[in-house]
Every structure is written in C-alpha cells, then in structure tokens.
Specification:
The protein is α+β, with helices and mostly antiparallel strands. It has one domain: Ubiquitin Conjugating Enzyme, CATH 3.10.110. About 40% of the residues lie in helices and about 15% in strands. It has seven helices and six strands; from the N terminus they run αββββαααααββα. Helix 3 runs parallel beside helix 7. The longest helix is centred in the middle third of the chain and has 22 residues. The radius of gyration is 19 Å and the shape is globular. It comes from viral metagenome.
C-alpha cells in the first residue's frame, strides 16, 4: 500500500480545524467530534437528536475521510446509524451515503475551502429536524407519506438509533470514544427517553407504511420500552 505524502498546507489546515472545534465545541448542539490521532485524514462524529424531533436523544454516527488535497475538496462522510432497512433521512441513505450540498453530493451550494469540520458537522445535524421528509425535493406537508414517515422514524430512533447503537458490537469496536459519550448520555437521560416511549404508546402495535422508500414498520413500543430498560439496568449493574 502506497503511503500518502501530505503537503504541509493540508496538515496545517486540518490541525486548525481540529483546534477550532476543540476550543469551540458544539456540544450544546448535541454534536461531538473525535479526530484520529494515528491518521490525520480520519475523524468520527456523533449527533445526538434534538428534542421535539423524531430523532430526539438518538445517536447518529458518522465517519470522516479527508482527501489529501483538503480543503480544496470535501471529506467523504459515511453514515453509520443504520439497520439496512430504515431510511432515517432523505439525506442519509441505507448504504451509508451522505447527500449534502456542502459535500458536493447534493444539489445546492457546493463545497468551498472556507468550510470547516465545524460547518460540516452543523450541516449534518441540521437535517435531523422535526420535518425531515421536507428535505426530499418536491415533498410537502400534505404528502400522504409525511405522517407515517415521522411515525416510522420516531420508533426506529428508539429501536435502532438508541437500542442498536448501544448494543451493537461494531459500535464498541469502531467508535469506542463516542460510545462512552452515548452510554453516559443514555444513563443521564434514561427517564426522558422512557417518556418518549410512553408518549408514543398510542401508536403501539400499529403498522406504519410509506410508498416513498418502500418502508413498513411494526410500532412495537411495549417491546422497545422493555429492551431499553434492560439496557439501562445492564449499565447500572456495571457500576455495582
């Protein structure tokens, strides 16, 4: 494998970006970033879903691969909060592809060397809003899929973005630093997360279907509540 020799300007710029987010973290936005200490061209990020959205308290993981000509080209960002079935956002594909104009993978204002790691992170989390389907071109709130899509994401957020992301071994191996943040957040916000379960119990045992993305999901809130409680109890036992 040929070793990539980086220009000093690339190293200097990446170091500047990392310094910026270290000095001015985006934690208040639910954003956490970890830069790879062994490979300067790699980084990882976690977006914790905002209150009042279908993504509330969910753990959305991303991997950054910076090109050797950064910042003249954007990084490749891969999305990892996936179960292979759920399209969590119009901008995030089931195969991990991230489509954002800032990354030159979506229509709109394209990448500029003025952009930074911080601006990319904010763009990644901004699309995780309360009306995600509006990110899809041509979709309006009166679309028949609008409500069932939000119901599917609200449930999958608890089942996959919280449950799976806390339990899956690949998260423990690939994102150890971010997983610790996730575990601490889950323990601190467990009651709030369970309130999300109870708040949606009216949809329990129903089925939500969308023509767009071809999704069908059984909303088994009783089961997901039991599962999240077991996860919490497991973390508590680890402290004893």
């Amino acid at each position: 494998m040929t070793e990539v020799v980086l220009a000093k300007g690339v190293i200097k710029r990446l170091a500047k970006d990392v310094r910026e987010i270290t000095r001015n973290p985006l934690i208040e936005h639910g954003i956490h970033y970890v830069h790879n200490t062994d490979n300067i061209l790699k980084g990882q990020a976690l977006c914790v879903g905002s209150k009042g959205t279908p993504y509330e308290n969910g753990y959305y993981l991303f991997e950054f691969e910076f090109p050797p000509n950064y910042p003249h080209a954007p990084p490749l960002v891969t999305y990892h909060t996936n179960d292979g079935k759920t399209r969590f956002n119009p901008n995030y594909y089931r195969n991990g592809k991230v489509c954002l104009s800032i990354l030159n993978t979506w229509s709109g204002d394209q990448w500029s060397s003025c952009n930074t790691i911080s601006s990319i992170l904010l763009a990644l989390c901004t699309v995780l809003n309360d009306k995600p389907l509006l990110n899809e071109p041509g979709i309006k709130e009166d679309n028949k899929d609008f409500t069932p899509y939000n119901k599917i994401i609200t449930f999958a957020n608890l089942s996959v973005a919280i449950g799976d992301m806390l339990e899956k071994n690949f998260v423990k191996v690939k994102f150890p630093e971010l997983r610790k943040i996730m575990v601490d957040h889950f323990k601190e916000n467990y009651n709030s997360i369970m309130e999300q379960v109870y708040r949606n119990v009216g949809d329990h045992d129903s089925i939500a279907t969308t023509r767009l993305y071809g999704m069908t999901m059984w909303l088994d809130y009783s089961n997901v509540g039991v599962r999240l409680t077991k996860i919490y109890e497991g973390f508590v036992k680890e402290l004893l």
